[in-house]
């Protein structure tokens, strides 16, 4: 039964409580607004519940298992190493629950009103929120849309018990013996690598020339080499054509080099991208402009074509990254509060939790040259770093992109252990307009992976200590 309602007023209404929405709601509340946030599923959105966090938990557990099996070089060996996959899943869920509970606590602590249900715009100043039992109208001065994205489903690979998206692959209750991964982007590579570390026979089918095509080849080739060492079959320039489900698994058909092939596995994981969740909000009836791909058009303050409605995260142009969504959420909240905040994508780091980890920020050497900027590219190997040697993780390098004229840092790429943590210093360097000399003259603790940043900067200024020029 639908209960009649009187409109509830709020200053700012946020739709979606993922890493964009909940951050926007908290920042808006901190700036003195009365805020309501609407979420139809769990606090934290895809990232906390079925994305970034559970995938990294699974990757970490897989690393522990792999290290237990393969640490003979360090004089450490173990017998009868076992995986209790139900316990792995229970631990992963406990990590997720702590974080989602923490998000709810943060929202309540900042006096944000939390509403459960699906939102639909009635007009440019009101929405209807519906759940199974009732509907309620909320009126607002400003709204922030942060509804995120959903995995793309291929027509020939309809999701089922054995045809999985990333959510399904993260929630398997038993360890598969084999898995086919369609798509060698960051999700496919991360999850494929995690299951390979657990001993699963993994086949990756990628339509492009290389896996992780958004990264430089010298970076992705290190990951490719490592995956092959773990027994992963990687087929590039492959077109997945269809799947036949059997009682105990799947048979996937694909084309490569003009020939048709089949591969059998327990499951097939489809990771070919994500689509924005913008089609069931009523945007068209209030005049919010979207692109052909369903992305919402915004200005420098995340404002849509309707001046009091803002949009952030996966539903706007740019990479579908949680940290980008959080950044945009703060900009939108500040713009609504009258601050002169604007988005500036000078340094959005991109990270893949592969082996080795990959991270990139700012310009690559090619991008800089294509933009007509004269640059110098300086490299330093992990193999010349004491901490990397003591971790037995010497694969990889750091590359610093600096302007030829004055040595300003405009880009950096890292392939190696700890790359995901190391990239933040370089993001700060780019944001602050620092030079290679600024980094080289900063004392870095020894022995740490962080010294690689200093050493690469020393290469850039022509005075390296730990490699011969």
Question: Mind explaining what this structure looks like?
Answer:
This protein is of the alpha/beta class and 469 residues long. The chain has 3 domains: 8-150 and 275-343, FAD/NAD(P)-binding domain (3-Layer(bba) Sandwich); 163-272, FAD/NAD(P)-binding domain (3-Layer(bba) Sandwich), CATH 3.50.50; 347-460, FAD/NAD-linked reductase, C-terminal dimerisation domain (Enolase-like, domain 1). 31% of the residues lie in helices and 25% in strands. The chain has 14 helices and 22 strands. The strands form 5 sheets. Strands 1, 2, 3, 4, 5, 6 and 17 form a 7-stranded mixed β-sheet that branches. Strands 8-15-9-10-11 form a 5-stranded parallel β-sheet. Strand 12 and strand 13 (250-256) form a beta hairpin. Helix 1 (21-30) packs parallel to helix 9 (322-336), helix 3 runs antiparallel to helix 4 and helix 3 runs parallel beside helix 6 (186-197). The longest helix is centred in the N-terminal third of the chain and has 25 residues, at 85-109. The N and C termini lie far apart (76 Å).
């Amino acid at each position: 039964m639908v209960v009649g309602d009187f409109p509830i007023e709020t200053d700012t209404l946020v739709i979606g409580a993922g890493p964009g929405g909940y951050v926007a709601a908290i920042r808006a509340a901190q700036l003195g607004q009365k805020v309501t946030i609407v979420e139809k599923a769990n606090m934290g959105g895809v990232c906390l519940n079925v994305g970034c966090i559970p995938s990294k938990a699974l990757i970490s557990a897989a690393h522990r298992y792999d290290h237990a099996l393969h640490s003979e070089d360090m004089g450490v060996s173990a017998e009868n190493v076992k995986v209790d996959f139900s316990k792995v899943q229970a631990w992963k869920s406990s990590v997720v629950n702590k974080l989602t509970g923490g998000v709810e606590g943060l929202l309540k602590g900042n006096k944000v009103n939390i509403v459960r249900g699906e939102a639909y715009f009635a007009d440019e100043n009101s929405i209807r929120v519906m759940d199974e039992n009732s509907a309620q109208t909320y009126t607002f001065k400003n709204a922030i849309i942060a509804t995120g994205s959903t995995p793309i489903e291929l027509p020939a690979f309809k999701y089922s018990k054995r045809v999985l998206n990333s959510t399904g692959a993260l929630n398997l209750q038993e360890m598969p013996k084999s898995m086919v991964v369609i798509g060698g982007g960051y999700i496919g590579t991360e999850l494929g690598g995690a299951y390979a570390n657990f001993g699963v026979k993994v086949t990756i089918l990628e339509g492009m020339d290389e896996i992780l095509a958004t990264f430089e080849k010298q970076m992705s080739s290190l990951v490719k080499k490592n995956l092959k060492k773990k027994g992963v079959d990687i087929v590039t320039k492959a077109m997945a054509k269809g799947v036949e489900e059997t009682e105990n698994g799947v048979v996937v058909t694909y084309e490569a080099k003009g020939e048709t092939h089949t591969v059998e596995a327990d499951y097939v994981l489809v990771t070919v991208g994500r689509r924005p969740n913008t089609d069931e909000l009523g945007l068209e009836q209030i005049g919010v402009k979207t692109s052909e791909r369903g992305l919402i058009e915004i200005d420098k303050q995340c404002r849509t074509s309707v001046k009091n409605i803002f949009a952030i995260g996966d539903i706007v142009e740019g990479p579908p990254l949680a940290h980008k969504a959080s950044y945009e959420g703060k900009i939108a909240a500040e713009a609504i509060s009258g601050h002169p905040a604007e988005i500036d994508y000078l340094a959005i780091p991109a990270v893949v939790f592969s082996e080795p980890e990959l991270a990139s920020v700012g310009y690559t050497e090619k991008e800089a040259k294509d933009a007509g900027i004269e640059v110098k590219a300086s490299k330093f190997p992990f193999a010349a770093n004491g901490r990397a040697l003591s971790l037995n993780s010497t694969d990889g390098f750091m590359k610093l992109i600096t302007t030829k004229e004055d040595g300003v840092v405009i880009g950096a790429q890292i392939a190696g252990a700890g790359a995901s943590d190391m990239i933040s210093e370089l993001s700060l360097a780019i944001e602050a307009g620092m030079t290679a000399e600024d980094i080289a003259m900063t004392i870095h603790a020894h022995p740490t992976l962080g010294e690689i940043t200093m050493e690469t900067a020393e290469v850039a200024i022509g005075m390296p200590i730990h490699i011969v020029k």
